[in-house]
Amino acid sequence: MLTKLSIKNYALIEELSVEFAHGLNIITGETGAGKSIIIDALSLVLGERADTSVVRKGTEKAIVEAFFDVARNQQVKRLLKQHEIEFSDELILRREVSVKGQSRSFINDTPATTALLKDVGDILVDLHGQHEHQSLLRTETHIDLLDDFGGLHALVEEFSKAYNEAQTLLKNIRALQAKEQQLMDRRALYEFQIKEIDAIGPRAGEEEELEREVTILENAERLHSATARLYTMLYEGDNAVHDQLVLARNELESLAAIDTTFEESHREASSAAAIVDELAKFIQQYNARIEFNPERLEGIRDRLGHLNLMKKKYGGSLDAVIAHRETIGKEFELATNFQAEVASLQKQFDAHRKITSEIAGRLSAKRHEVARNVNKAIVKELAALGIAHAVFNAVITVVHAQDTSTAVVKLGKDYLEASPKGTDAVEFNISTNIGEDPKPLVRVASGGEISRIMLAMKMILAKSDRLPLLIFDEIDVGVSGRIAQAVGQSLKKLSQFHQVISITHLPQIAGLADTHFVVEKVDDGKRSVTRMRKLEIEERVTEVAKLMSGANVTETGMESAKELMRLKQT
User: Fold this and answer.
1) I need a surface site. Which of 160, 242, 291, 406 has the fewest CB within 10 A?
2) DSSP 94
3) pTM, full prediction
4) Which of 20-24, 288-292, 481-485 has the highest mean pLDDT?
């Protein structure tokens, strides 16, 4: 719900901050006081088009901030997460319009695009009037409203999952068919390359192994002579390191028997002698394994030459050669078994089409059933609002698929176009006059009639409609008396499920307010300023009395206002 609206330097508003409440919030005020300015400012912060003319004369920029309680609104949470904007229970939308024509948008103090601001606004607010936040006037929302009323979201989700799986299979079939000629054209090339690479049979890491071996074979003589010298130095020659360490160890052992201080040195000498012994054994064994093998060296060089040729032809590295072999192997196998692969995917697609078709049939049948109930309920509600001869139809249509091979739904003998929401298109049609055929809701006349139509639909869809805030900008245009009272009662009922803000000039509606605001234009002799304030109970009575009898409020008018507001007489 909208908890607070702050406006600064917007048109006639210098600075204004107002807090809204649950239930029915009523806004009244004299013609020209600036009621529409409040709604225009709210529309701006909900993402509507910015215009520099709204910036108050003599100031640099207009600022509008709207504060919403979204603690339980999962749609907003998902949308903000998607755009990496921090979520909190209080959502703050801010829009700034400079006199130079620059517009900036913020969500929770994070810069955002105007488009994102509008997306958030569409989730939070339905604004009925000469504005764009009118979900019922967007044909694409009609199917969602119908599904809301019927509680069909689980069934829609079931279809959507099956539809997406079928579309994935269809995409794979199309991709495979698109590759057919390419595969056939390259089959001979792939076959040649496979034979050429397999004849060499490169292994991962082989090149490094061979290069290490080449280095060793090329330096075999040096390795042999060096290791022989080392062995003599360490173990076999006169004054060998090992012999000297043994003598040192024995001498330290004798000293340790006299003075224990030498025990650690004795242990270290023993360890050093053992290490030299192991080192000498390793060098002796290495020396014995050294090969002088020119044939092996030549064979390795020849192998490396073949591997380098493969590298030049197929990617620049041995890993690239191996990866290329794997890829063309799959492509060659696919080319060889192309028809079988297509047939396998087609069989899977046909099976999924049966699943989607069965779900689509159930979903469409449910929608037709729900549509009949909605039609009756809305006509009844319209009659209560003074549109006695209305005809309302939730028209459900389907489109036959031009290409039956790609249709994911087949009902009977008919192949139908589909979307993740099913095969149905829904559009609300209405006639409000006897003898007139129902026409699309988006084409009916604006004004009080369209507002009442929307109010009737909101009453029917109230418990399921997900929009938390409904705003009605002068919904009472062209109505009075009994009808005005009926409109007021409908708004009051609607406010049990939604926060409702309504601008009105009718006492029958204003008298039902849970919270009542008045918009006033004040002239200080230099400039006009629009202000908005919340009315206390006695002020509310006076305001309703003014709406009933004009500016000259009498005691009788006050009593009538109290009676209309169902207050106890004092």
Assistant:
1) 291
2) E
3) 0.62
4) 20-24
